[in-house]
Amino acid sequence: MQEIGQLNSNQKNLFSHLTQAPSDAIFAIMNAYKADTSENKIDLGVGAYRTDEEKPYVFDVVKKIEQEIVNDPSLNKEYLEIEGLPEFNKGCQILLFGKDNPLITSGRIVTAQCLGGTGALRVGFDFVKRHLQGDVYVSNPTWGNHNQILDRVGLNQINYPYYDPITKGFNCKATLDCLSQAKEGSIILLHVCAHNPTGVDPTEDEWLQIADVCKTRNLIPFFDCAYQGFASGCLDKDVFAVRKFAELGFQMIIAYSFSKNMGLYNERVGAIHILTSSQDIATKVLSNLKMVIRTLYSCPPAIGGRIVSRILCNDNYYQQWVQELNVITGRIIKMRSLLKNELDNLNVQGNWDHIIKQTGFFTFTGLTPQQCDQLTQDHHVYLLRSGRMSMAGITSKNVKQLVEAIKIVVQNK
Ligand SMILES: Cc1ncc(COP(=O)(O)O)c(C=O)c1O
């Protein structure tokens, strides 16, 4: 008698040709942190907010709306439209482009609810691959998943030199020089604010120069907006680049994430916006975007979209959300100065001014991969080997221990 599961001898060994794929750097750090039993471990890996007690945070306004949704007899589990909830899409447009922006009523913006910022990027680049082609210019460095998504979709990537390791700031001249050589019709992936991993953003004047070169070279802007609210602390100011490019008449694509600014990480809520040249074209773009979504995951899940739309469409909830977001961004900003002061107080070798100059969730510390390894192995501090530190993992209690560890690894250089 054949044993259950005994291999069918006629079938060749199907998956034996596979080699082990590399693990995702950020998830690997998250797991290593979880497995560490030390009481003094510090998690500076993942870009997820932690309270000053090192706890994950769920917005009160989100909890309240979740209850409301559970108790709402008018809701059911029927499929949503392929492009998601209409009130979600409308709310997202207003948040990004601004309440009184005439583009919203023009019908030229196509929006679809997506599975987080990652889902929006994937949908957007699938759409680009099918309907635009062109090389994609990607900042060096960028969020690692950008490279992986583009690779999977099969779009050619070219780096533009974004970060200057000497000044630990934005290298505007090198960026402009590179883009001015780009082939017409290329796509340029731009981080709207709080650049990941560097924490370095162009100034408003530098954005205008980037817009200029995009116009001259006929480049297509593809914005990634994952941190609205985290750079300056002001929702409107943080999306200056998107609003300015829209005002200047660009047709463009924007991938948006609510993971960080509403703390909805595992609900997977985001959006893709495509700003087109006319209402008529927008209708055609939407129909094609829906084809991309239908074949990827059919339609988005409802809960996250309902939470976001209730926040964006209700004045009271909106105010509560902004207040809570301010507390979060305020704590991160405070941690930057605390870290910098402690580094100075302990006379840690080097100049650490960039910690307070950079913005958003991350600081690109300038620590070498070896120093980062040493921080993890000897001091239970978890961060990316690129030297990227999530500021949201620093607290008033762990900052001293962190700085003492940095002092040791910097001296051992
Ligand atoms: C620059 C950038 N874009 C997009 C995302 C995607 O976020 P999510 O898919 O979690 O919404 C992230 C998340 O870390 C990010 O840092």
Automatic annotation (TrEMBL):
- Which Enzyme Commission number(s) are on file for it? 2.6.1.1
Spell out the InterPro entries in the cross-references: Aminotransferase_I/II_large (IPR004839), Asp_trans (IPR000796), NHTrfase_class1_PyrdxlP-BS (IPR004838)
The yes or no answer to whether the keyword Ribosomal protein is present is: no
Domain Aminotransferase class I/classII large positions? 40-406
- What GO cellular component term, any one, is given? mitochondrion
Give any Pfam family that matches. Answer: Aminotran_1_2
Which cofactor does this sequence's record say it needs?
pyridoxal 5'-phosphate
Which top EC class is named for this enzyme in its record? transferase
- UniProt GO MF annotations: L-aspartate:2-oxoglutarate aminotransferase activity; pyridoxal phosphate binding
Ordered alphabetically, the record's keywords are: Aminotransferase, Pyridoxal phosphate, Transferase
Similarity section: Belongs to the class-I pyridoxal-phosphate-dependent aminotransferase family.
PANTHER family hit by this protein: ASPARTATE AMINOTRANSFERASE, ASPARTATE AMINOTRANSFERASE, MITOCHONDRIAL
Q: What is this protein called?
A: aspartate transaminase
Give the originating organism: Paramecium sonneborni
